[in-house]
Write a structure and sequence with these properties.
Elements lengths: L1 H17 L35 E2 L6 E5 L4 E8 L6 E5 L4 E5 L2 E2 L6 E4 L7 E6 L8 E7 L5 E10 L2 E4 L4 E5 L4 E8 L8 E5 L2 E2 L9 E6 L4 E7 L8 E7 L5 E8 L16 H23 L1
Parallel strand pairs: 2-10, 12-19
Antiparallel strand pairs: 1-3, 3-8, 4-5, 4-9, 5-6, 7-8, 9-10, 11-13, 13-17, 14-15, 14-18, 16-17, 18-19
């Protein structure tokens, strides 16, 4: 055992003197070989390090545009160097733009690139239509190509008045009309209310007219008319700045029942009465036939 310990001590001493250690710290010969081994503490090159074109992570991936208005799809690329940026429509794999040039017969599409924003490449779609909705690819001409995808949504804001198409109120009560505007990427800048074809004036001689509008993802506008009279009957229209209008007909009742009025919302329609009569006759004939048997 003592002999073995001595041998080990000699080996360790010899290795230390000859530099045959696996923990070499820069010692090297002319051929670059370092002391019989490599430095485990040396900085390794990052295989994932990429210095070519890179997409800005702030690039919007979902864009919403109003039908009939302009849509802008923006792609920001850093370190582009001599590569080019193209916009491709995915539904038909159509190359729309390459660099600052447009390659489509549809003149609604246009490539926009300003030198002041050299890393920004924009696809401009004029008068956006529902069929324009879908996925668009921003592609850089590297090998292999690098791409990001942007989804375009084309929406048609809609307005509706609750309780329509006919609303019945008692004379002397308050007319409360509620207009709801949906599917709008931004709240309407204004909402006009009409009685027939005239804009309702809130400071008219009649008085008692007020409007309360709550803007948000869904915008709601309330038209309040106090002490309703017969002259307040008629067609009311809600007309937002960025949506189609919506109308209802208000009936101010003077002690009469809505069921007694021939409106679309009261009583049975002619078609319903006809169907009911056919059902009664069919049942009667069936009963008579059974009794005869």
């Amino acid at each position: 055992m003592m002999m073995l310990s001595c041998v080990l001590m000699v080996l360790v001493y010899t290795a230390d003197k000859t530099g045959c250690s696996y923990q070499s710290h820069g010692g090297s010969d002319k051929n670059g070989a370092g002391g019989g081994g490599r430095d485990v503490n040396a900085v390794k090159p990052d295989a994932n390090l990429y210095s070519g074109p890179q997409f800005d992570p702030e690039t919007p991936r979902n864009v919403t545009a109003l039908e009939g208005k302009s849509a802008y799809l923006t792609c920001k690329v850093k370190n582009l160097d001599n590569k080019t940026v193209s916009w491709i429509r995915h539904r038909d794999i159509h190359i729309l733009t390459v660099g600052a040039y447009t390659y489509t017969s549809d003149q609604r599409f246009q490539a926009i690139h300003h030198r002041s924003h050299s890393d920004q490449w924009t696809l401009h779609i004029k008068w956006a239509q529902k069929r324009d909705a879908g996925i668009y690819e921003c592609q850089v001409s590297t090998q292999p190509v690098r791409s990001i995808f942007v989804t375009l949504n084309v929406v048609v804001p809609s307005a509706s008045i609750s309780g329509g198409p006919d609303i019945h109120v008692n004379e002397g009560s308050t007319i409360n009309l509620t207009c709801i505007v949906k599917f709008s990427p931004e709240p309407p800048s204004y909402i006009f209310w009409y009685h027939y074809d005239e804009v309702i004036s809130y400071d008219s001689v009649r008085g008692g007219v007020s409007v309360v509008t709550e803007k948000g993802d869904v915008t709601v506008s309330y038209l309040l008319i106090q002490d309703a009279v017969q002259a307040d009957s008629g067609k009311y229209t809600c007309n937002p700045s960025n949506a189609d209008l919506s109308s209802v007909v208000v009936h101010v009742l003077n002690g009469e029942s809505p069921a007694a009025m021939q409106t679309g919302s009261a009583g049975l329609s002619n078609s319903s009465i006809t169907i009911l009569c056919v059902m009664i006759l069919s049942w009667t004939f069936t009963r008579t036939d059974d009794q005869l048997r």
